[in-house]
Automatic annotation (TrEMBL):
Organism domain of life: Bacteria
Residues in the signal sequence: none
Pfam families, sorted: HTH_1, LysR_substrate
HTH lysR-type domain sequence ranges: 1-60
MF-aspect GO terms: DNA-binding transcription factor activity; sequence-specific DNA binding
Keywords: DNA-binding, Transcription, Transcription regulation
Family classification: Belongs to the LysR transcriptional regulatory family.
Matches recorded under PANTHER family: HTH-TYPE TRANSCRIPTIONAL REGULATOR (PTHR30537), TRANSCRIPTIONAL REGULATORY PROTEIN (PTHR30537:SF3)
Official protein name in the record: LysR family transcriptional regulator
Organism for this UniProt entry: Aquicoccus porphyridii
Coiled-coil spans in chain: none
Length: 298
């Protein structure tokens, strides 16, 4: 049995995207070609790698074992290419970064744009999703999380601490009156997460205030932020986001303040991939610098 690398690339893309069409877009191939190559790989190997359901393509047990091995091979190939290209030069190729949408909207655009400015042949993709990324399935090359994972073969490093406060727009406060103490919150419209869609306990901000009813709720930080900016109510906001909304101000800063952390998470197999390690170092430095700069403006 001899597997073709083009077929393995298609297998990896389908395993990560759980869809022929999404895998095709990733590889710039049509979905039918991706499907044929996966079918050829299964025929050559004599095993079924995926089961198909209305939700998409899921790895079988054999597929999961194969994924472990070929992901390592992919990382080794990347390391070899880095070595042959010469270390220390400009970064190139494509890097996909997963992140919660708060970081993805207010920190990563300027940080990653700066990295690409210095490395013109580099392509950075930011996947902004309010959930934990599965790096074992290679949904991304690396991810930012709000708490360190406790399981998996992962490299985890702390990026930065960041602060959050209650905030409201001047428009809202002008209509509904000042907020003089935490006891006043019951009389105000609150904005926050959909309770059963909080994917990490670190994000249960309003729970720390004992607030049970959320009048305007979303699983997206950006939606919450825009509600606050438009005068919808009171909510907990990242300090680093506040410079993007001059009409929004913090309230009750002495009574309520939170400190949370961002963590950079990578797959352990990528430890020796020079290109990813260099990008991770630039990203870490950039995020720390940007959090500090933006928080000083609030």
């Amino acid at each position: 049995m001899q597997a073709r690398w083009d077929d393995i690339r298609c297998f990896l893309a389908v395993a990560r995207d759980e869809s022929l069409s999404r895998a095709g877009r990733r590889l710039r191939l049509d979905a039918a070609t991706v499907g044929r190559r996966v079918a050829r790989l299964e025929h050559d190997m004599g095993v079924v790698l995926f089961t198909k359901s209305p939700q998409g393509y899921a790895l079988t047990g054999e597929g999961q074992r194969f994924m472990t091995h070929v992901a390592r091979a992919e990382a080794a190939m990347g390391e070899a290419m880095d070595d042959l290209a010469g270390r220390g030069g400009a970064l190139s190729g494509q890097i996909r970064l997963g992140a919660p949408d708060g970081a993805a909207n207010f920190l990563l655009p300027q940080v990653c744009a700066g990295i690409v400015e210095e490395n013109p042949d580099l392509e950075v993709q930011i996947v902004a999703l309010p959930r934990v990324f599965n790096l074992s399935k290679r949904e991304a090359d690396m991810a930012i999380g709000v708490s360190p994972p406790s399981a998996g073969r992962l490299l985890v490093s702390k990026l930065a601490d960041y602060r959050l406060h209650l905030a409201a727009s001047e428009v809202y406060l002008g209509r509904h009156g000042p907020v003089n103490g935490l006891h006043d919150l019951k009389g105000h419209r609150m904005i926050g997460y959909i309770p059963d869609m909080i994917f990490d306990a670190e994000l249960d901000y309003l729970g720390e205030l004992g607030i049970e009813r959320v009048a305007l709720a979303s699983n997206s930080v950006s939606v919450q932020f825009n509600w606050i900016r438009q005068g919808g109510g009171l909510g907990v906001v990242h300090d680093f986001a506040l410079p993007a909304a001059p009409g929004v101000r913090k309230v009750l800063t002495r009574e309520f303040s939170l400190t949370r952390s961002f963590y950079l998470i990578r797959h352990e197999d990528d430890r020796r991939v020079e290109r990813l390690s260099r990008f991770a170092a630039l990203l870490s430095e950039g995020v720390r610098r940007e959090v500090t700069r933006l928080e000083r403006l609030t």
